[in-house]
Amino acid sequence: MGVADSKLMRGTMVLTAATFASKILGLIYIFPFTAIVGQTGIALYSYGYLPYTVLLSLATLGVPLAVSKFVSKYNALGDYRTGHRLFQSGLLFMSISGLIAFLALFFSAPYIVPLIIENPTENGNSFEDIVFTIRMVSVALIVVPIMSIIRGYFQGFQSMGPTAVSQVIEQIVRIVFILAVTFSIVNVMEGSLGVAVGFATFGAFVGAIGGLTVLMIYWFKRKKYIYEQIEQSTVDHQLPLKKMYKELIAYALPLSFVGLAIPLYQLIDLFTFNRALIGSFMNQAESEVAFAVFSNTAHKIILIPMALATALSITLVPTITKSFTTNDTALLQKQITQTYQVILFLTIPAAVGMSVLAYPAFGALYGMKDLEVGGYILRYYAPITLFFSLFAVTGAILQGMNKQKYAVIALAAGLLIKLLTNAWLLAVLGPIGGVLATYLGYTISIMITVWAIGKFAEFHYRLIAKRTLLISIFTIVMASGVMIVNTGMQNLLPITSQLRAFPSLFVGVIVGAVIYLYLGYRSNLAGHVLGNRFLFLQKKKQRQQE
User: Fold this and answer.
1) SS3 content of the chain, % helix, strand, coil (to 5)
2) pTM of the model
3) 194: CB partners within 8 A, 6+ apart
4) I need a labelling partner for 357 at 20 to 30 A (CA). Which of 138, 248, 430, 545 fits?
5) Which residues contact 374 (CB under 8 A, 6 or more apart)?
6) Over the stretch 242-251, which tens digit does the pLDDT of each residue have?
7) Is 401 helix (H, G, I), strand (E, B) or coil?
């Protein structure tokens, strides 16, 4: 039992590290890619990628986790045959669903374009370029769902290596292809932006082939061992396929729906942003730059602190499941408290710091060309990282407590608010209207998940409210210090080039981190929140007091 547990723990850590690495790679490549294609190219890339992401999620429906849960359950009962039957029929099912999703996206491309931009003109992305981009990315839908079921099957054997390695290889192959092909088309062949971005979205298919190749190598290495275990099955439940899929869908639906939160919000923006702004506030070129910043470039920056905070907190979810199942209310409440504290302690200062340093951050990462609109949107959009993190973590806590139904209700309510207010707020406030609609939607979602945790875990928020107040005070002090330093840096070294934006960003981040961590250390807040990670600081402080 101990060996199995440690193997699972090690595997989970490997998978978490690989997921984090592929996310970081996904954030980093956007900087050189933006330098090659500009914000207009990024807008075009988003037009193809956003419908693809949503269709992919619908085609795979949380399959890797659901399959791993199903296979793991029947393997533990000594029935390896049932899991393998699901795998075999699932491969066929996923091949068909992937093909249907590909055909749907490929042939609907000309009908999607008017929903994004009513009448594309000469001063922005053309109708033909948008159709080409959507069709190029759609090809990946043939391969990716097949990969998802193979990954899930391996994970069912508590083998996380194949998923981890294939994820990282898929991302590396995709990024290398995107940067190489766009640089060659734009800078070497002097080809059109539309062709370059179309081939960039085709990188999703090329990366998927790389990931699938890795999985096939693992499969051929382990095939003999897997078939031996199937032959040695002590039980055969002989489940009909209908019953197997019913069980699988029960696992998969809540997982996939909550994971769809950000892509679904972005999809609403995709179909309302340009239509609301072109003509009333901006021409097509200006609107597309604002959309690119909002949906991709600024969005990528705010995902950095969210990735760090949620990675730290999600590790607590399996322990929350255990506490809830064993009715250990005291331990459950302690773990939820710890999760909330970590998220708030890390994300509130990061969100405010990014907002204060919006202009140097955008200039340093993306250059000077669209600094005004980029810095402006990032300033207002940066705090959303706190909302994204809170919803991801509260949704995960509810999942750990087997109350994922409330996370789904929360997401549906938030999406409804976003849908009802987005076009109107964009028409009234311009690009910032889309930001405000996202805040409103996420606020409703978080209120529901926070209420559900309070109700079903009998969790009281008094301590969290006190800690949030203290964190907010420290964040205001930190933000004041960063503002003063940033103003001084702008006077000393005005941001006139990408290179000159780096010192302002670097000094601002260092000053902010030093102020906030010093206040956290002196008040012992860091010790309370981060626990053992700050134990050496607590001891050192106690010795000083003696």
Assistant:
1) 85, 0, 15
2) 0.86
3) 44, 125, 126, 128, 129, 132, 133
4) 430
5) 39, 293, 297, 298, 362, 363, 366
6) 887 777 777 6
7) coil
